[in-house]
Amino acid sequence: MGKAVCIIGSGNWGSAIAKIVGHNVRDRRELFDPLVRMYVYEEMVDGEKLTEVINTRHENVKYLPGVQLPDNVVAVPNLLEASKDGDIYIFVLPHQFVADICATMKGNIKKDSIAVSLIKGVSITEGGIKLISDVITEELGIHCSAMMGANLAGEVAKEQFCESTIGSTNEENGQMLKRLFETPYFHCMIVNDTPTVEICGALKNVVGIGAGIVDGMNYGDNTKAAVIRLGLMEMIKFAELFSPGSKVSTFFESCGIADLVATCHGGRNRMLGESVVKSSKTVKELEKELLHGQSFQGPLVAREIYHILETKHMLEQFPMFMAIHKICEREMDPSQFVSCLRNHPEHM
Amino acid sequence: MGKAVCIIGSGNWGSAIAKIVGHNVRDRRELFDPLVRMYVYEEMVDGEKLTEVINTRHENVKYLPGVQLPDNVVAVPNLLEASKDGDIYIFVLPHQFVADICATMKGNIKKDSIAVSLIKGVSITEGGIKLISDVITEELGIHCSAMMGANLAGEVAKEQFCESTIGSTNEENGQMLKRLFETPYFHCMIVNDTPTVEICGALKNVVGIGAGIVDGMNYGDNTKAAVIRLGLMEMIKFAELFSPGSKVSTFFESCGIADLVATCHGGRNRMLGESVVKSSKTVKELEKELLHGQSFQGPLVAREIYHILETKHMLEQFPMFMAIHKICEREMDPSQFVSCLRNHPEHM
């Protein structure tokens, strides 16, 4: 029997990955069950249930309109039903929902199933951070890998060539996930450094807001390149401090510099940064206006790491992260952003 | 007596750096002679000599129009006169002219003068590469540093915040150059790894063409991020092979990832790559049409490294560099470019 795949989440990225996974399981029946269940948070779209639209028109009209999903991807509105008897769980939903989802799944899944997190974020503990993959492992008692990379969903859905990084501490699971996700246009590389992969995925969205701020201020490519570089340096330092054993080489993978560059040019958090300069609305208001129900992950992560860094008296080592949080909270004017970079600790 | 500074070259970047240097030497008279001589290759612009225009209107109307140069920067059309009695030589001209310039200066300069190369390129020898800074040192018998970074000239001239990297094997010279170049908007960091700084400056223009090719093919930010990442990997491998002792950490400086990102988004070699897709003209024709007398450095470097790699039977390790050279030579169709990346050695 092939392994049954369950996708938990159905936003922009969840739908794009459903397209890949749906095709791959059908092409690789020796490995995978050809039916993919996708847990969809039910909502009404123009008078119809979103799950019914997906299951009849095979399109997520709300979050990835215009993209045909394979018809072996079945939308299921009930989490327990969707996740029952799964062998591989793909977590792809905003990180604030992970705890509740896991609480529902706990005790209702196979003990030898595995998971992979595509979630951009980290959890906060008193002492520091906890990875989403670790949260999933602790809650569900199953091994969890992570996959991150320069993978803007709309472009992946259009089958434009890109790379992605699978972080897995279990080689067999890493190889299985590569077979699940890889296509000629979606190239997966495996590293055994899951923490750095996830930290990159969380923090790049914070830097992306910074890139948007300098775009909004009409700075050019030099300033933006400095923001990207200094942001990368803060990401590396954060990983060193809060995830000892993190490898600098992982930052050279797609989840590192490549995703950072893509996020700083095409991501939604970049758009948020630009909007924060050009309007005086709050982030919440901008989210409603710009994302129609999706959420900006960058400000949430920025707030969380601000509080960790404040508690540990380390804020001055991370002037960019600090400034971005304060600008998102409207406690600092965006025009101050570049000044915060002039005496960066990297320059000492 | 303050040190006399001579700028050799007066193109787009030479003129932007002349603005910085002119202001800095005036503000730091305890260190520098407040008069800066700039060697300008004489040409006629709308019936006037370029040197006369610069010396009366204080603007390089041909290569950096609209930017006021400080009036203590004096354009000199005669190289020997410009370089006589200099203490610090800033080389900022296309790399194909370095040998002739040095041959003229040889024997006519102070023995304890120093140089810094802002030239993007490397020289080719039978066994491999020779750095421009080494060419200058060998020809003139003086120490030579290098400065490279995410420094698109037009944006520097507008005083937008950016960073730059000074590579110097002599700490005192590095510090002196930092005082010559640094301003609140132009931040200089010193590394003692001159070879990697120069190799980055040369090779980033090749990758920039690749970024332009995917832009021209209407790929999005994911594919471009993959081009940037794989290009960086080829740059690192090239440095390892041809400049043993090269430090990976230098690629995290402005001369590394930051300059690469800026070049792949705003540089003239990116523009060339896009034009190569959208027209069927040769690189020479595009150069005339787009640059009005300046030159594209990327295709020259691409050709040179292609020949080294071919001689050493290493082409298959550098599929991106190889493809970019062939596309520039019109020996490969740009539509083949992305296919060349699908089985990249980095993916093995």
From TrEMBL, chains A, B:
Reading the lineage from the top rank, the first entry is Eukaryota
Q: What is its EC number?
A: 1.1.1.8
Reactions catalysed according to its record: sn-glycerol 3-phosphate + NAD(+) = dihydroxyacetone phosphate + NADH + H(+)
Where is NAD(+) annotated to bind?
G9, S10, G11, N12, W13, G14, F97, A153, R268, Q297
Q: Which GO terms describe its molecular function?
A: glycerol-3-phosphate dehydrogenase (NAD+) activity; NAD binding; protein homodimerization activity
From the UniProt record, give the pathway where this protein acts: Phospholipid metabolism; alpha-glycerophosphate cycle
> An example of a Gene Ontology BP annotation on this entry?
carbohydrate metabolic process
| Protein's name in the database | Glycerol-3-phosphate dehydrogenase [NAD(+)]
Give the organism the record lists: Mizuhopecten yessoensis
